[in-house]
Design brief:
Helix content is 25%, strand content 36%. The chain is built from 6 helices and 12 strands. Bound molecules: S-adenosylmethionine.
Length: 259
């Protein structure tokens, strides 16, 4: 298969095919959180690192006022084009989630699948949480999902997903190429195998994720007293099941409430 070295997030169409179908559990869980963890009526939503807006446009269609931010212009263009197709305001914009201001505060925000770990330093992570504290109204929520690095069991090393729509099929793979606990990063290989009637090729990329053990995450959150932890769930997205974070915990969803 022909190999193309490129940045995966520059291909929102392929990204969205693989990850876009997987939205319902997150969507329902987020709505359950809006009902359970805030006394505010949630109307305005914001997603930092919104990517293709796979969740955002569905919330828009459901009647919420939505906005999103992403560093990648292709992602933002894809997201806005879809919002437009659904007759919604083109409310995604290019920006850095560690340094931004929202013109209008939101009632709730969400960031569900590890995007937060793209921020490579403590300074950026804190910058992000402080920007989010400014972006969310008092009593509102920030739902933040990520993989922690377990210290009691070996971490997950590889994942793959596949999806097909019409003549296009994409197989996505993620694998840990290096895990540096001391310097707190994971070098992660990522690829899309793309199959169309006329060509087949593999896009190969590599990214760095910052790593967080449970105590490191707890310490970070303690530095942003504007948020309290209202609840902790996991990627099973069951609002009735809260998790107790241990040294073996991997996927977590923090429900942060703006104090
Ligand atoms: C795994 S994708 C997630 C997209 C979307 N949140 C979703 O659930 O499908 C990660 C996204 O984070 C974006 N990103 C990475 N670093 C960023 C930063 N510093 N500020 C804003 N977006 C960033 C990437 O461009 C990419 O679209």
């Amino acid at each position: 298969m022909e190999i193309r070295n490129a940045h995966l997030y520059d291909f929102p169409k392929y990204y969205d095919l693989v990850y876009g179908s997987d939205w319902k559990a997150e969507f329902d869980f987020l709505e359950d959180c809006f009902e359970r963890y805030t006394s505010r009526v949630v109307r305005r939503l914001f997603e930092p690192a919104c990517g293709t807006g796979r969740l955002l446009y569905r919330f828009g269609k459901a009647g919420y006022d939505v906005a999103g931010l992403d560093l990648n212009e292709q992602m933002v263009d894809f997201c806005n084009a879809r919002l437009k197709r659904h007759k919604l305001p083109q409310a995604a914009f290019v920006g850095d989630m560690s340094d931004f201001t929202l013109k209008k505060k939101c009632d709730a925000a969400f960031n569900t699948i590890n995007s937060f770990r793209h921020l490579g330093s403590q300074e950026q992570a804190l910058g992000h949480l402080r920007c989010m504290a400014n972006a969310v109204t008092k009593g509102g929520l920030y739902v933040l999902g990520l993989h922690l690095t377990p210290t009691a069991v070996p971490p997950l090393e590889e994942e793959s997903w596949a999806a097909r729509r019409g003549n296009l099929a994409v197989l996505s793979r993620l694998w840990v190429a290096e895990h540096n606990r001391r310097r707190r990063f994971e070098r992660v290989g990522m690829s899309f195998d793309v199959y169309t009637p006329s060509e087949q090729f593999r896009i190969v990329d590599e990214t760095k994720f910052r790593t967080y053990t449970a105590p490191q995450m707890q310490q970070l959150l303690a530095e942003v007293p504007e948020f309290e932890v209202a609840a902790i769930h996991d990627f099973s997205y069951e609002v009735d099941t809260e998790v107790i974070v241990t040294a073996a915990t991997e996927d977590v969803v923090y429900v942060l409430r703006r104090c």
